[in-house]
Amino acid sequence: MAPAQQGYRLQDVGSRGDMYYKFSGFTQKLAGSWASAAYSSQGLKPVAPSEAPPIIFATPTKFASETTTYDYAGKNKVPQLQTFFQKSDGIPVHLKYGLPDQMLYRTTMALTLGGTIYCLIALYMASQPKNK
């Protein structure tokens, strides 16, 4: 037989009416099988449950009108804070709380200034050639 004719020809494969295939989980390829194995996938048979499963959530459903509301947030302080921060007393909003706001503001300004100076020094050192 010539090397070009070693495989099945298309009409030979098409003429065989008893060839069935199924997916092989072992080789991860299609493999030839019997008709009964090909039609019942991997040997799994449909099983009908003999009894109904137990109810998981047996409590009745509550409607929105039946639910109770809880006050977890406490008293609403927003109106008082609005009047406090909207007073025109000449102090900027970010400093109205006094000493804690001043400390946060000054720390932020010091870190910003220090970071800027550090970046400028690093840029200056990177721009200078190394002497060998």
Descriptive report:
The N terminus is likely disordered. With 132 residues, the chain is mainly α. A two-stranded antiparallel sheet has the order 1-2. 36% of the residues lie in helices and 8% in strands. Among the domains are: 33 residues, no CATH class; 43 residues, Cytochrome c oxidase, subunit VIIa (Cytochrome C Oxidase, Chain J, Irregular), CATH 4.10.91.
Broad shape: flat
Count of discrete alpha- or pi-helical segments spanning 4 or more residues: 4
Q: Which percent range describes the beta-strand content?
A: 5-15%
Question: Which CATH top level class of the domain at 90-132 fits?
Answer: Few Secondary Structures
Provide the low-confidence segments as ranges: 1-15
Briefly note the CATH topology name of the domain at 90-132: Cytochrome C Oxidase, Chain J
- State the major sheet: 2 strands, antiparallel
Name the CATH superfamily classification of the domain at 90-132: Cytochrome c oxidase, subunit VIIa
Overall pLDDT metric: 76
**From the structure provided, what is the oligomeric state, counting identical versus distinct chains?**
single chain
The amount of helix comes to: 25-40%
Q: What is the CA-based Rg, rounded?
A: 40 Å
Strand order of the largest sheet: 1-2
Q: Would you list the SSEs in sequence order as H and E?
A: HEEHHH
CATH architecture of the domain at 90-132: Irregular
Q: Count the strands?
A: 2
